[in-house]
Amino acid sequence: MAQLLLTILLGMVLTELSKNVLEADLGLKTCVYINVGARRVSSAVMNEIRELIPQEDIYVAKSVEEEERAAIEILEKKIDTLFLGGGDGTFVRFINRLIFTAGNRTLPVIGILGLGTGNAIAQLVSSGNALSDLKSFLANPSRDTYPLSLVETDGMVYPFGGLGWDGQWLEDYERLNTMFPEVVKGRVGYITAFILGTIPRKLYDIVTRKHVHANIINGPHKAFRVGPNGEKADPVEPGEPIYSGNTTSVALGTVPDYGYGIRILPFAGVDLEYMHLRVVTISMARVLLAAPSVYYGVFRHPGVQDFYVKSCSVDFSKPMPFEIAGESMGRKTHVDFSVKSSRMNLLRFI
Fold first, then answer.
1. 85: Cα separation from own chain's centroid
2. Which tens digit of pLDDT belongs to each residue from 308-336?
3. Whole-model pTM?
4. Which of 248, 275, 233, 15 lies closest to 138, judged by CA?
5. Which long-range contacts (CB under 8 A, 24 or more apart) does 63-72 make?
6. Which architecture characterizes domain 2-143 according to CATH?
């Protein structure tokens, strides 16, 4: 019993020492923002975080007002490293809140605790077990960062999004999740929504010969078609059409991963000034047949056209389901996309 108490006491002392070293010796201030609704957030996880981080530096927002207050306090404290606990949706929502609140103030380095569902951003910076990553940083603070460009639409920034299959999939998932919240959730929920919702809809479109026409016009900067080896080829001049024709899906972003390790945009991040725009014209059946190569980001096909683009506008012949970082955004017939000039620094785990 005495040995157990000594071990617990020693652990508490070491944790406190790590905090003091982090803030006093290195001059670094760290805090954590947690989405308590994220799939992997539990009372046990929260308890462990409280053992590592002082309570006044842990933020949990359950409303827009609390989210705003958290952003204000974090910026006023001049935090050096902010850990976000949740998935890609948590990242997008709070990053936008921080940017809106910050004005000209410098944003902290963002550490990602992969506690959500898809966790595309977490995979980008090699984030593994959330608690292990946090403990590792506190014990040996790293300043190794990954510069992340973001796409901007109507004042909102995000790492990836799309219109078509992925947007429809999210719509189907959210509808089934609302009807059966205890059954349709997480990875199983997405698979269920895809099989019971998205595939039948797309099969119906094929049978009834429903087509969607897209016009994609380049912005004020030169764009490029992606060459066979990922190089910039076949330039598209400012204001010229990038693509015009039928499409089943338009995806774009600055990160290759769409969640679950699926590399839908393999050329994203090759050049930080450009996003990867992917226009798909082939059927879902053809893509599913090539699932392994799609997963690893090596799928190439004449019906999949890839571009490096700084900005563009997209018009559809009918409203298309739109998703941003795994969150359904309704249906759109027109969307403007551009790469935000300023970049964000993500903490890279080694």
1. 13
2. 999 999 999 999 999 999 888 999 999 99
3. 0.84
4. 15
5. 67/93, 67/94, 67/97, 68/97, 68/101, 70/33, 70/94, 71/97, 71/98, 71/100, 71/101, 72/101
6. 3-Layer(aba) Sandwich (3.40)
